[in-house]
Design brief:
Blueprint: H1 3-16, H2 23-35, H3 47-54, H4 58-70, E1 74-77, E2 81-84, H5 89-109, H6 116-131, H7 134-150, H8 155-175, H9 179-197, H10 201-227
Antiparallel strand pairs: 1-2
């Protein structure tokens, strides 16, 4: 998807949500596009064009950029503009530190047991694997982890996870372009959902913790290989 395609789509979306012309709404819209992989690391966010298609003022747009910069999703470069962030090794370590708190805890203590979204994400990932679509596998994997945190039934935690997943999409875009990273985790996701269904929450949380440690190590190794 090109920047022009995204701008056209955003113009339509903003026309339907005129009442929500706030910095929070703009930040949410841009975060969703980044999490969906539509805005790649290093892409420049043209202030004038975005303000025009979203129908918001420059001050509102800058408020949104400040929010996203605080989340490490975009980067401000003086005299050059605002760009979609390119995660570093330290960013990856911090992302996974947060995830190791959020996800195992949701599996262990969440009051809700609705695993249908988790199973649906696994089904999507299997279809993507069969068709050879790496991007769809990555997207389905993101949806699975989003569904894990949603077990907690907390809007605040859901927002936190949305921010984390936006950063994760940037990591995947930059570092993992082959199916070898995503494929092994599909069946682990399925196993975690099955354990929750069976009431084996402690085992599910333990598996998730190990899973996240391995994924972090793989991503850091990929980053080293990429820079070599």
């Amino acid at each position: 998807m090109t920047l022009e395609d995204i701008l056209t789509d955003l113009r339509q979306q903003s026309a339907e949500v005129r009442h929500a012309e706030t910095g929070t709404w703009v930040a949410s819209v841009l975060r969703e596009r980044i999490a969906a992989g539509q805005l790649a690391p290093g892409a420049k966010l043209a202030e004038e064009a975005l303000g025009e298609v979203l129908g918001v003022s420059r001050n509102t747009l800058r408020e949104a950029f400040s929010t996203l910069a605080a989340e490490h999703v975009v980067t401000r470069i003086p005299n050059r503009g605002v760009f979609v962030a390119q995660p570093t090794a330290d960013d990856i370590r911090e992302i996974y530190r947060v995830r190791r708190f959020l996800e195992p805890a949701a599996l262990l203590w969440a009051p809700h047991g609705n695993t249908r979204p988790m199973h649906a994400a696994v089904a999507r990932a299997r279809l993507a694997r069969a068709s050879g679509s790496v991007s769809e596998m990555a997207g389905a994997n993101q949806s699975f982890h989003e569904a894990v945190v949603a077990l907690a039934g907390s809007e605040r935690l859901n927002i936190q996870m949305e921010q984390v997943l936006a950063e994760m999409r940037l990591v995947f875009h930059s570092m993992v372009a082959d199916p070898g990273f995503h494929e092994p985790y599909i069946e682990e996701n399925a196993r975690i959902a099955e354990l929750v269904d069976a009431g084996e929450r402690a085992q599910a949380a333990e598996l998730m913790g190990d899973y996240l440690r391995r994924a972090e190590a793989q991503l850091l190794d990929a980053m080293v290989a990429e820079s070599a």
